[in-house]
Design goal:
Layout: H1 5-19, H2 41-55, H3 61-66, H4 70-81
Helix pairs in contact: 1-2, 1-4
Length: 82
């Protein structure tokens, strides 16, 4: 399954809109947890699990802990599905 960065970002954007229950949520590669109103530790776990399910793999804890923004999540997904 080879996906472009734009396709990965679009999928993550859809997942985030579902997890945060906000159909108008605007997400870019630079978006951080501080910029999303309901992004707390529980919703972070729900987000990561949803991304894992969507793309069919598991992250390591160290990979998740190192993420600083949505762009880094896109990069990580890209390396796993690429």
């Amino acid at each position: 399954m080879s996906l472009s960065r734009d396709e990965i970002l679009a999928s993550i954007r859809d997942i985030m809109r579902d997890v945060f229950d906000d159909d108008d949520l605007e997400i870019s590669l630079q978006t951080t947890a501080e910029e999303v109103e309901d992004w707390d530790s529980l919703s972070h776990i729900r987000l990561i699990v949803a991304v894992e399910r969507k793309f069919g793999f598991k992250f390591k804890n160290s990979e998740v802990e190192a993420l600083k923004n949505v762009g880094e999540l896109v990069n990580l997904v890209e390396t796993k599905v690429g």
